[in-house]
């Protein structure tokens, strides 16, 4: 979806819907709820977005681009941080259940069959993130592999599962230190 440019009102609908999808899922939030919560006519929704599938793809693209900006800021522009500190920030950014990655993570499970283009958007972000993680790991340990970067992403996603199923115990720091101290 190259050069996504939306009117301000359409962006308000996207932002409201990102919140709805984050908390209620892609299948339980329908167009009727979106237009009601956004206070726009259904015809306006379809004028802006054409279909729910395209709308979900737009929401995920917006979320992906916002998240990429944060990752690049950490990885490239926070020069005062060590590589381990950058990896920690990336880890905590992505394991925050209230954060931006959670929606993309959720999309991997909820959109594959019903909204395949949206699913591809989420998968492409994961691929991009693996490359970013690898570029940090290689600075930490010169013999780091692409498989190590995948393992870091799997650790992020496993932590999300653990947080979703836990009794409120947050052991993210412990898990991360285990990985970083093994490197």
Compute the number of strand runs: 0
Strand content: under 5%
Helix content: over 70%
Can you tell me the CATH superfamily? Tetracycline Repressor, domain 2
What kind of sheet is the major sheet? none
Determine the number of helices (DSSP H or I, runs of at least 4 residues).
9
Q: Per CATH, what is the topology?
A: Tetracycline Repressor, domain 2
CATH hierarchy, class: Mainly Alpha
Q: What is the H-and-E element order?
A: HHHHHHHHH
* CATH-defined architecture: Orthogonal Bundle
Provide the number of structural domains. 1
Q: Give the distance, in angstroms, between the N- and C-terminal Cα atoms.
A: 37 Å
Global Rg? 18 Å
What would you call the shape?
elongated
**Structure classification:** mainly alpha
- Which stretches are poorly predicted, pLDDT < 50 over at least 5 residues? none
Mean pLDDT: 92
List its traits:
single chain; 183 residues; mainly alpha; Tetracycline Repressor, domain 2
Provide the fold topology.
Elements: H1 8-24, H2 31-38, H3 42-49, H4 52-77, H5 83-95, H6 101-110, H7 116-140, H8 146-165, H9 172-182
Helix pairs in contact: 1-2, 1-4, 4-6, 4-7, 5-7, 5-8, 6-7, 7-8
Question: What do you see in this structure?
Answer:
75% of the residues lie in helices and 0% in strands. The chain has 183 residues and is mainly alpha-helical. The protein has one domain (8-182): Tetracycline Repressor, domain 2. Helix 1 (8-24) packs across helix 2 and helix 7 (116-140) crosses helix 8. The mean pLDDT is 92.
């Amino acid at each position: 979806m190259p050069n996504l440019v939306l009117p301000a009102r359409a962006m308000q609908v996207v932002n409201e819907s990102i919140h709805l999808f984050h908390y209620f899922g892609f299948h339980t939030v329908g167009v009727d709820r979106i237009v009601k919560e956004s206070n726009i006519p259904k015809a306006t929704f379809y004028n802006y977005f054409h279909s729910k599938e395209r709308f979900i793809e737009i929401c995920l693209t917006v979320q992906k681009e916002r998240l990429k900006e944060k990752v690049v800021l950490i990885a490239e522009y926070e020069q005062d941080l060590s590589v381990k500190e950058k990896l920690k920030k990336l880890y905590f950014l992505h394991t925050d259940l209230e954060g931006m990655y959670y929606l993309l993570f959720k999309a991997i499970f909820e959109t594959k069959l019903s909204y395949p283009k949206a699913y591809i958007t989420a998968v492409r972000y994961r691929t991009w993130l693996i490359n970013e993680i690898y570029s940090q790991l290689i600075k930490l340990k010169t013999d780091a592999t692409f498989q190590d970067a995948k393992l870091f992403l799997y650790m992020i996603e496993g932590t999300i599962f653990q947080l979703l199923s836990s009794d409120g115990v947050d052991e993210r720091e412990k898990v991360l230190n285990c990985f970083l101290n093994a490197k």
